[in-house]
Amino acid sequence: MADSKPLIxxxxxxxxxxxxxxxxxxxxxxxxxxxxxxAEGIRxxxxxxxxxxxxxxxxxDMEGLDVVRQIREWSEVPIVVLSARERESDKITAxxxxxxxxxxxxxxxxxxxxxxRVALRHGARRAAPEAATYEAGNWSVDxxxxxxxxxxxxxxxxxxxxxxxxxxxxHAGKVVTHRQLLRELWGDEHEDAQHTLRVHISQLRRKLxxxxxxxxxxxxxxxxxxxxREDEPGx
Amino acid sequence: MADSKPLIxxxxxxxxxxxxxxxxxxxxxxxxxxxxxxAEGIRxxxxxxxxxxxxxxxxxDMEGLDVVRQIREWSEVPIVVLSARERESDKITAxxxxxxxxxxxxxxxxxxxxxxRVALRHGARRAAPEAATYEAGNWSVDxxxxxxxxxxxxxxxxxxxxxxxxxxxxHAGKVVTHRQLLRELWGDEHEDAQHTLRVHISQLRRKLxxxxxxxxxxxxxxxxxxxxREDEPGx
DNA sequence: CGGCGGCGTCAAGAAAATCTCAAGATTCAC
DNA sequence: GTGAATCTTGAGATTTTCTTGACGCCGCCG
Lengths: 235, 235
Fold this sequence. Notes:
The structure is a homodimer of 235-residue chains. Chain A is α/β, with parallel strands linked by helices and 235 residues long. The first copy, chain A, has helices spanning 15-27, 38-48, 64-72, 88-97, 109-125, 159-170, 178-186, 194-208, and strands at 7-11, 31-35, 52-56, 79-83, 101-104, 133-136, 139-142, 147-150, 153-155, 175-177, 218-221, 225-228. In chain A, the strands form three sheets. Chain A has a five-stranded parallel beta sheet with strand order 2-1-3-4-5, with helices on both faces. In chain A, strand 3 (52-56), helix 3 (64-72) and strand 4 form a beta-alpha-beta unit. The longest helix of chain A has 17 residues, at 109-125. Chain A is elongated. At the A-B interface, helix 4 and helix 5 of A face helix 4 and helix 5 of B. The first copy, chain A, binds a DNA duplex (30 and 30 nucleotides) through helix 6 and helix 8.
């Protein structure tokens, strides 16, 4: 990454802007991969592991905020948002959803480039790029496509179940506190719904574990929380 | 830092804005330290190690850009720049000098707060990689994952056992009084459960010590308390 | 020698946390 | 408004953890 040109994925449906970026960015030492839809952009993300994403919020196939959130479920790649909307609340929600910067159109190319450099500075410090799929035992979780397989059979998870699983994956190997899970799933408010959490864990086990009675990966740490056990190479 | 409110240093000479920030930021969970000049601000930086800096570019005693550059010579603290200047070139030079964000006055408090959260997110990630494991003999305690290994075999500890161990680790090498342990584990109230404490120590030894009869690390100091013996380099 | 206090171990009952099933709510699309 | 999917809540069974009491060991002092 440091030794070759940074790769930027541009997710933008307006052709003129895309053309503009396609022309400008390479002049400044970046490689560019384009996508006109969110789905295509996310596919690029998963396959190419770019160093940065430029994301237009006004995409045809998906709500812009949801794109940010979905990327953030599994990737920490820096996201620079472009948007025609100037409303402060739009900026706030986008930034809180996980975007790293927010530029309103029309923007100057110079400022965009400078902000890209800032975002890449941050990204460069980050450790090895994350994998787009998580594997453990005979599980396989395709984080980009939001699909889960057990022994090559696809398993359907409800939204909550899936989010719970991604939180555990994000902290794989570590114990995740009840409180932490509750906060990530339901927000700071409902830090009381312990019981609900247990039920969802139970459901996940029923769907993913061969023998839900004796979990192989979805371990409970009594009095503390839950932990996703990773494969141990030596075993 | 994670356990207390983030500290923000505000370097700003305009009193109204300073007053405004002094009023708003604490309402959103931040501690604030103010400086009206660059020199004072830099002094605060060096002494307090804040989590973030809000910097006005129009300071009386120093050119704004130089402030950024000077801070960056020795600190990576996130810097959010406020400026009345809208010129694109000003933004670019500030960002390239090391600023993490750039807001032009007048700015909305909501957007400022959102961008502060982004900058703090980055800062937190940078500070995170602490070697959070304790080693002694053939023990290895992964404090981040809350896991304990003895001779590469994972050992399961109950919540109380684990907390007891972490207290001793926190004071590794030093004697920890009975009273101190009781207070840390059960609160000021139950300073009588000496016997219970002994049982837990016993359990810990059974799980961690090769020969619980002759402890290598979980030493008892008769009449006083317990002590976690560290490795001695000379052995 | 014999009693005493501090300590460690064991085991049993009490307490707390967790799991599971199933019955209401709720949500969302149609 | 209806129905399907999902989420939440309740209750009882089950598991894990904590506490307590009994007992034995050891060193010390009278």
